[in-house]
């Protein structure tokens, strides 16, 4: 089981091991100057995620910090059925990342799988790791995240977007069925995720993820 926890940590810290790959990977994984001419961009200071106005009372409680209720699924944003835009892409990317600590805490991968594209290796590796934890009868606790949007870029002439975010992940543990601590991850970690999302006739899909740890 130690291997599973290490895998989850590695997936959040290693681009090489867990990034999504397809034939567009060089463009999808970094918003560098080399791509400036082919992308239109909207930039803003980091914006923390706030609760949707339509959020159900069942999700009441902190929306930031380590004490968030991870037993409740994050509220799906209106952007999932909204227009194809930078704003919608950013909301979808935030929702996707927020579905990770919920899935890790409950074993419910519904939202994660619904948005994961077939070519997304990162998405599939996370799914397999969480499945392995729960198939062994164990569970994860803690690991809440704070997410903010830094920049959203649209590939010119397409419905594909690269969303740059900030993410703080709080400490977590893996527990046995009897509550024994199997694994302890005591550090608070800071990442700069890049999430590639695409608007399709069937809805939004995550086609790539790069997770760079910065602190």
If you had to describe this structure to a student in words, what would you say it looks like?
With 215 residues, the protein is of the alpha+beta class. It has a single domain, classed as Nuclear Transport Factor 2, Chain: A (Roll), CATH 3.10.450. Helix 1 runs antiparallel to helix 6. It is globular. The chain starts with a helix and ends with a strand.
* Strand tally: 8
CATH C-level class: Alpha Beta
CATH architecture: Roll
> How does the major sheet shape up?
5 strands, antiparallel
- CATH fold node name: Nuclear Transport Factor 2, Chain: A
N-to-C order of helices and strands: HHHEHHHEEEEEEE
Which percent bin holds the helix content? 25-40%
Q: Rounded to an integer, what's the Rg over CA atoms?
A: 17 Å
Q: DSSP strand (E) fraction? A: 25-35%
**Biggest sheet, spatial arrangement of strands:** 1-3-4-7-8
Terminal residue distance: 26 Å
Global structural class: alpha+beta
| Anisotropy-based shape | globular
Total helical elements: 6
Mean pLDDT: 80
The tally of domains stands at 1
Poorly predicted runs: 1-7, 13-58
Keyword list:
215 residues; alpha+beta; Nuclear Transport Factor 2, Chain: A; 5-stranded antiparallel sheet; 3-stranded antiparallel sheet; 8 strands
Indicate the topology.
Layout: H1 2-13, H2 15-18, H3 25-28, E1 39-48, H4 86-106, H5 110-115, H6 121-135, E2 139-142, E3 145-155, E4 160-169, E5 172-175, E6 181-185, E7 189-200, E8 203-213
Antiparallel strand pairs: 1-3, 2-5, 3-4, 4-7, 5-6, 7-8
